[in-house]
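Collaborator request, handled under Task 6.
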Amino acid sequence: MTIISLPGGSSEYLGGGSGYDGGRKITYFSNSYVLGLTLVAGFGGLLFGYDTGVISGAILYIRDEFEAVDQSSFLQETIVSMALVGAIIGAAAGGWINDTYGRKRATLLADVIFIIGSLGMAAAPDPYVLIFGRFLVGLGIGTASVTAPMYIAEASPSEIRGGLVSTNVLMITGGQFLSYLVNLAFTEVPGTWRWMLGVSAVPAVMQFVLMLFLPESPRWLYMKKSKAEAIVVLSKIYDPFRLEEEIDQLASTLEEERLRKNAVSYWDVIIVKEVRLAFLAGAGLQAFQQFTGINTVMYYSPTIVQMAGFNSNRLALLLSLIVALMNAIGTVLGIYLIDMYGRRKLALSSLSGVIVSLVLISVAFIMGSSGSTQGYYGWIAVFGLALYIAFFAPGMGPVPWTVNSEIYSQSYRGICGGLSATVNWVSNLIVAQTFLSIADAVGTGPTFLILAAIAVVAFVFVMVYIPETKGLSFEEVENIWKERARSSNSNKEPLLEHGR
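Structure tokens returned to the collaborator:
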């Protein structure tokens, strides 16, 4: 029987594992060492979030400086989305980098690339150098998006893993909020957008320095490098009783790896049924996170506010700051709820509110006057944006990243984590690259109605396909997919334990 204390002070009984670490309840704040690892790794999320938010304000001033950008929606979309192209490549390569060189080296590499890209953007003499800088930044955040949740999950007790991984999402939303504050701070400074983009190098430098003093992921160390080093790290995370349990589980996992005849490959994600089932769940959540519109709101919220009739750049940024604050507050709530109510229930509740909010935004734009929706309908649109964030942030913000950090077996965690993050970034790119064009073609209101319809499909997907993983060990989660594979004609397709 497991008893855990949650961030808000309540307790809950869970089925698997031990809820006591040597007679002591495991809580979100009970181990400062684990929390420190989480916060430093979470700087990767801060970079992700800052870049997401800062470009939404910077693009307003980039348009003012470069006439070609101001006259081309496609060029605006390319500046915004080129970071996503880089992130797709960074995430795809990030899985292999993590498995081969470890989570720590992957983080350091991501920081270096991000710093170079940030400084390149700040000094860009034309839109095309700016676009290249955005690509480099994307490589860094793509790699970090794979590495940070994986590193945190592998250093977290299972009872509070959801909350700790969600801290990375809090850093993302905190970075978005910080970016809007920076945007407002630099609105009257010469070279406005250059400062907005260049400042993003600061957290990357901070993470690089701090990461030099942190250990490698204990699970990666145990499986790939040194059992002794892994045990040293694990001893700082668990008390002796729980430490023995964790080492036994790792030893069992390592023995399974040695019994497999074939090396791990990307092809296994397709041909090995239990791996494929897990990947489809993780990748599906990542795709729906984007196609339900979150980064449409975060990339283009000032533009959407202006579409609603509020034409001042500064007012648009100020209203968008409120949206970003709602996002950060909602994520804090998600940290509290994800280990209390579980991933599945939280995602379903979140999607229900997202559907209502998107319909409200759509109606506000459709019903507004053709010349301007400022006034009654304009404020309804802004309220709808805030309501959307209030529902999205606690659920569909952290749930996809948390689920993807825990549903894959140790051998496939890097590969599948990288591929699912790539799905997230590809989906992100599609949304970012097409939102303004679709809004121009069919109208802003119908565009949000399309997003609402996708959210309905996402609700059905979570209801039917996503299992609950709250409080389970990595090995227990792996068994879920083995059982699902067996129950659906598993004799016709290879399983990991059958000769692999």
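The cover message to the collaborator said: "Residues 109 and 140 are 8 Å apart (CA to CA). The two ends are 33 Å apart (CA to CA). Please let us know whether this matches your experimental observations."
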